[in-house]
């Protein structure tokens, strides 16, 4: 089939606007899957995706469609995630396409992530086809959504396709729009092969499977190829495309310019396959690599430790395989006095962190514990040196710190008009400020705010959703660092600091957080033969304290009558023994206590 009849496109939208359902209908309409094999969320292969009803990984698939002009077209589709934490997945999928279907919910309209995805697509120079989905809903407001597409997204609304993925309305029109409006790939079948590596997975029996978009040239089994970034050479064993069903990878004779598929080339090490690399032929190597992807910067950090320290090497291998499948996940070894050997891991957001931890538990059978999430702080020392700290344990002494700067994010929050006052109060509680307010239509408003990243990590989105009954949405981007009154909060157990519970917090909130941690620790630390003091400290100042009462042995039980001085003498002796024990004793906090406290955080 000539490359002029190939179309590479993806589906982008805000979370829960119907991307995956539309993918299901497209697969059914083109006959790629039989109706008897069809099921909801067909492309979502992970159990986690099905349970949560979200897309985590982009899923490429090849379809064949006979258009009204009588020609058969090869359509390479990518279903992408909608959550802001997986925006890197979206950007990589966009790089392998010439066009995109932009899905907008007819009832909810343009959302925060819709705007962000349009910016990403425009940056890549893609052709966008707006699709208004869920037009069959009773509360669908099509005229308002068409106006939003023009006013907010700056796109002509007359090109929008009206559809209902659930009921199969408008599917034929969408496929015809893809064929007519999205340009064909521009590459040529020359000798000089150039293929962009946009994803990869690890197969136990076949090694690393790289997902490629062939830009120029032809690749087939037996060809000698080279990775430009690592300069490693391999022999291609198999090439193919992605088809839905049990045999997801379908072997082909060759991949040509414009094709999206996979390459297996005996790549054994996960570190040799880098996302964004260019695959070239060693017979006629291309000198210019393809533009890769912007290096992603993690925004949230957390320590991940194996509960059984003997599993450290297994965890390291599992993380290497997971990083191959998720290039936005980074990790490096670290050790903790309390938790032993583990890894400092970087994530794009809290949902990303949660998904990675769950995948480690399910897919690799790892029993792990994670520390409280933190961000990267910029610390200016008294001598003018600037350092970056992602772990409270690496914080220098307070006496040599001139100022601590925390990362800030610019949030775009879309909410119904009646929730403005509640959101303003929430932003003030989170130490943020509103920069700009814009009315989108008669019902909704968009607030542009600046907040510390640390404040929106845990419960900010949940509070917006509960406050607006699910109608609020949020997107954010980094906007530099800002100096603030930040301090390191240490937790002391019997006078000894416990590094796993250290955190960097705002001075105004340090006392409340210290009191909450001390109360929780009091519940989980086992009783000793002496009183154990649990203290929260900022530098040398104690800001909160709880005590675990001592076990009491009744030493006077053997005294039957006699003078009171006999009992007093025994009690004094016991008191001296406990005092000596407290000075040399060490409280061993059990692993279960760490798990309980870190869970509550």
Written account of the structure:
The two termini are 56 Å apart. 41% of the residues are buried. The protein folds into 5 domains: 3-181, Rossmann fold, CATH 3.40.50; 194-281, Translation factors (Elongation Factor Tu (Ef-tu), domain 3, Beta Barrel); 300-370, Elongation Factor G (Translational Gtpase), domain 3 (Alpha-Beta Plaits), CATH 3.30.70.870; 378-484, Alpha-Beta Plaits; 488-495 and 508-600, Elongation factor 4, C-terminal domain (Alpha-Beta Plaits, 2-Layer Sandwich), CATH 3.30.70.2570. It has 601 residues and is α+β, with helices and mostly antiparallel strands. The chain has an 8-stranded antiparallel β-sheet. A 6-stranded mixed β-sheet has the order 2-3-1-4-5-6, sandwiched between helices. Helix content is 26%, strand content 33%. Helix 7 (312-325) crosses helix 8 (350-364). The protein is built from 14 helices and 31 strands.
CATH topology of the largest domain: Rossmann fold
- What's the main sheet like? 8 strands, antiparallel
Segments where pLDDT lies below 50 for 5+ residues?
35-45
Q: How many distinct domains?
A: 5
Radius of gyration equals 29 Å
Strand order of the largest sheet: 11-10-16-7-8-15-12-13
What is the 3D shape? globular
User: What structural class is derived from the secondary structure elements?
Assistant: alpha+beta
Write the layout of secondary structure elements.
Elements (H helix, E strand, L loop, with lengths): L5 E8 L5 H11 L17 H6 L6 E8 L5 E8 L7 H9 L3 E7 L6 H12 L3 E7 L8 H10 L9 E2 L8 H11 L12 E10 L3 E10 L2 E2 L3 E4 L5 E3 L2 E5 L6 E4 L1 E2 L4 E8 L10 E4 L18 E7 L5 H14 L4 E7 L3 E8 L2 H15 L3 E3 L6 E5 L4 E4 L11 E16 L3 H10 L3 E7 L4 E9 H4 L3 H8 L5 E12 L1 E8 L2 E2 L5 E4 H18 L7 E7 L2 E8 L15 H21 L6 H10 L1
Parallel strand pairs: 1-3, 1-4, 4-5, 5-6
Antiparallel strand pairs: 2-3, 7-8, 7-16, 8-15, 9-14, 10-11, 10-16, 12-13, 12-15, 17-19, 17-20, 18-19, 21-22, 21-23, 23-25, 23-26, 24-25, 27-28, 27-29, 27-30, 30-31
């Amino acid at each position: 089939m000539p490359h002029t009849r190939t179309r590479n496109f993806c589906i982008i939208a805000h979370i829960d606007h119907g991307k995956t359902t539309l993918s299901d209908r497209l697969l059914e309409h083109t006959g790629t899957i039989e109706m008897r094999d069809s099921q909801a969320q067909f492309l979502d292969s992970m159990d986690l995706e099905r349970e949560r009803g979200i897309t985590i990984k982009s899923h490429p698939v090849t379809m064949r469609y006979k258009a009204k002009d009588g020609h058969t077209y090869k359509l390479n589709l990518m279903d992408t995630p909608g959550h802001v934490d997986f925006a890197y997945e979206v950007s990589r999928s966009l790089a392998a396409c010439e066009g995109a279907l932009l899905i907008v919910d007819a009832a909810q309209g343009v959302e925060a992530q819709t705007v962000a995805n349009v910016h990403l697509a425009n940056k890549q120079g893609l052709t966008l086809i707006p699709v208004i989905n869920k037009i069959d809903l009773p509360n669908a407001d099509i005229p308002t959504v068409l106006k939003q597409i023009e006013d907010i997204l700056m796109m002509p609304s007359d090109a929008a396709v009206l559809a209902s993925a659930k009921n199969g309305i408008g599917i034929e029109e969408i496929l015809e729009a893809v064929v007519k409006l999205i340009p064909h790939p521009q590459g040529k079948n020359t000798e000089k092969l150039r293929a962009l590596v946009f994803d990869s997975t690890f197969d136990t029996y076949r090694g690393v499977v790289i997902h490629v978009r062939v830009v120029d040239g032809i690749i087939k089994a037996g060809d000698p190829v080279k990775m430009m970034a690592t300069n490693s050479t391999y022999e291609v064993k198999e090439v193919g495309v992605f088809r839905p069903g049990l045999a997801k990878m379908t072997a082909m004779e060759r991949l040509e310019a414009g094709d999206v598929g996979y390459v297996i080339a005996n790549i054994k090490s996960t570190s040799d396959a880098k996302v964004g690399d260019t695959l070239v032929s060693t017979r006629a190597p291309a000198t210019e690599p393809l533009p890769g992807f912007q290096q992603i910067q993690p925004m949230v950090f957390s320590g991940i430790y194996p509960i059984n320290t003997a599993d450290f090497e297994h965890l390291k291998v599992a993380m290497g395989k997971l990083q191959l499948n998720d290039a936005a996940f980074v990790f490096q070894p670290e050790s903790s006095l309390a938790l032993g050997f583990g890894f400092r891991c970087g994530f794009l957001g809290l949902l990303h962190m949660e998904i990675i931890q769950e995948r480690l538990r399910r897919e690799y059978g790892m029993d792990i514990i994670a520390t409280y999430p933190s961000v990267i702080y910029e610390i200016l020392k008294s001598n003018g040196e600037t350092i970056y700290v992602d772990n409270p344990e690496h914080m220098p002494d307070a006496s040599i710190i001139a100022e601590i700067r925390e990362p800030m994010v610019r949030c775009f929050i879309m909410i119904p008009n009646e929730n403005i006052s509640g959101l303003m109060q929430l932003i003030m509680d989170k130490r943020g400020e509103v920069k700009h307010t814009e009315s989108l239509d008669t019902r909704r408003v968009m607030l542009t705010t600046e907040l510390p990243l640390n404040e929106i990590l845990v419960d900010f989105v949940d509070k917006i959703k509960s406050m607006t009954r699910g109608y609020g949405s949020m997107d954010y981007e980094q906007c530099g660092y800002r100096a603030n009154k930040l301090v390191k909060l240490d937790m002391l157990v019997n006078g000894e600091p416990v590094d796993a519970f250290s955190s960097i917090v705002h001075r105004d909130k340090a006392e409340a957080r210290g009191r909450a941690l001390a109360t929780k620790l009091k519940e989980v630390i086992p009783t000793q033969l002496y009183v154990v003091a649990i203290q929260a400290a900022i530098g040398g100042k104690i800001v909160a304290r709880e005590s675990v009462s001592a076990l009491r042995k009744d030493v006077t039980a053997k005294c039957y009558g006699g003078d009171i001085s006999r009992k007093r003498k025994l009690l004094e002796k016991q008191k001296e023994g406990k005092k000596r024990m407290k000075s040399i004793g060490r409280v061993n906090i059990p692993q279960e206590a760490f798990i309980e406290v870190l869970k509550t955080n």
